[in-house]
Amino acid sequence: MEKLLQINNIHTSFQTHAGEVQAVRGVSIDLYKGEAVGIVGESGSGKSITMMTLMRLLDNNGEIKEGEILFEGKDLVKLSEKEMEGIRGNDIGMIFQDPMTSLNPVLTIGDQISEPLIKHGKMSRSEVRKKVIDMLELVGISSPEKRMKQYPHEFSGGMRQRVMIAMALICQPKLLIADEPTTALDVTIQAQILELMKDLKEKLNMSIIIITHDLGVVANLCTRINVMYGGIVVESGKAREIFYNANHPYTWGLLRSIPNPKLDTKERLIPIQGTPPDLLKPPVGCPFAERCDWAMKICFDNMPENYNISEDHYSACWLNHPDAPKVNRNDDGRDN
Amino acid sequence: MEEKDTLIEVKNLSKFFDVNKGMFAKKKSYVKAVDDVSFIIKKGETLGIVGESGCGKTTMGRTLLKLYEPTAGEIIYNGKDIANLKNNDMLPYRRKMQMIFQDPYASLNSRMSIGDIIAEPIEIHKLMNKIERLERVRYLLNKVGLNPEDVRRYPHEFSGGQRQRIGIARALAVQPEFIVCDEPISALDVSIQAQVVNMLEDLQDDLGLTYLFIAHDLSMVKHISNKIGVMYLGKLVEIAESNELYKNPLHPYTKALLSAIPVPDPDMALQNKRIMLEGEIPSPIDPPEGCRFRGRCKYAMPKCAEAQPELKDMGGEHKVACFLY
């Protein structure tokens, strides 16, 4: 398969009153054509900022310090704002987390969906109209002729998220970035939206990057998963590898801290103690060391290398060093 | 299994909100937020309430605490009906019933130090003098895993998980028996959620608390609850012991709801047959006659439009309101 996107060692920082916040500290992610990749992590792990960097949508105080983002061979970091405008919305579409606030309340749905088309393409009004109607139908909004004249407040949460998807897809992008697309929705609506995204991925042969903190969502949709923590990718690999053969203690912790509704047992949850690191003063070593049950001295002093566990499965943990003690993930030395 | 005492019995509880009030309103309509709901919570147990947004679960929790005046029905707390008690008579019961709110950012007054926040309920109920109060606040902070030296700090200095702990400490301040937890973990990160849930479980064991746990995260609800009730558009459609409900859901809505949970396991996710629900929850203003779920239900029969199904006991305390059974 061909690589559509290669993010190489991206560093992004923000200047704030308190100092420089190093939100993303060397992230590398690959994406193949027609593939869905998940990025999981807690708030503040840098997952949204990585995507904002990719879209070049950082706030004024944000800056890309280092690294390259190759999209079809072009380095997005080096493009001018004008060239970037040609890609944003056209080649790369984005869905935001909150469908309630990311639509403009004073424009009709039809106007908002057709905006990228008018901006990027040279289409006649009737062509644009037809395309908007087709797209609304595709995302499952009934009677599109009527609905496109309505305003966002006339739509429910799930319907608004469908509108957001229609907007992101109208120019038939090669890549769709979905930033927590279902977090604000109910489970039944979430299931509808996930099915829709799966469906559209097949139909349009599109690649998807989905950002979420819900491991259930990625298990359903993604072929590969990147786990982020403290501004770096701590583990990446095929979905099955991450779920059944996780290597990084943070991934273990994540998997253990959620109850599996399909299991009968009422085991006690094993939370990850402590809180995520402060990226104003990022730790020198592994960002997870402070909360890790297996942390060694080296973990606090040196950033771990990326160890190759199996084909396409990487983990940034010193436990994989040949000299490190072998540990059992279920034996955490705590009484829980 | 020993038979536990009933702490709260809710009988035919309803809460309607008027819409279209005023002189020129054409017709009076109601939002039937909670409509004829009955259940029992036993001492020391947790009843989970699940449902989509707008199904009335939060209103139910608040009506139970009499934060809303119930429209009809009885709330029998320890043998006494409190549904019609007025402010002063209600006060002793308010002490016994507390609430933990959903949004830890909005539910703490940002101008009060956390010591004052936690001490406020004690002050209102005039339970202790100043020195005892401070002692109690420090004890509570320690109990919820925060540093007792933090009494003078303000909410903005704390993270979401820590704020939720402060909210819990405030609820515990007056030694309640019963706590309504209204989506206490949905605003928190996954790794922090487990910390808070474990703490709630420990507190329950330690202090013999009874919980009403409202949530839309179905896997967490199953984890924490002894019994679970499913609400749809103001109605309780099914209630059962939690493992039983997940293993053997009867109501078509419960089935769809459970199948919609994204399973955190790629292999199981492949096998999982989703029951897709068409459409969305209808407006609770003048809801459909008969069964409220019938518009989205693939088993709907003519009978469903004519009458409202009653909760029916299917044995083993598993009750369902559906004409299929």
Key features of this structure:
heterodimer; A: 336 residues; alpha/beta; eight-stranded mixed sheet; four-stranded antiparallel sheet; 11 helices; 31% helix; globular; disordered C terminus; B: 325 residues; 12 strands; 33% helix
Protein model, in words:
The complex is a heterodimer of chains A (336) and B (325). With 336 residues, chain A is an alpha/beta fold. In chain A, the strands form two sheets. Chain A has an eight-stranded mixed beta sheet with strand order 6-7-8-3-9-10-12-11, sandwiched between helices. The longest helix of chain A has 18 residues. The termini of chain A are far apart. The C terminus of chain A is likely disordered. Chain B is of the alpha/beta class and 325 residues long. Chain B contains eleven helices and twelve strands. In chain B, the strands form two sheets. Chain B has an eight-stranded mixed beta sheet with strand order 6-7-8-3-9-10-12-11, sandwiched between helices. Chain B has a four-stranded antiparallel beta sheet with strand order 2-1-4-5. Chain B is globular, with a radius of gyration of 21 Å. Chains A and B meet through helix 6, helix 7, helix 8, helix 9 and helix 10 of A and helix 6, helix 7, helix 8, helix 9 and helix 10 of B.
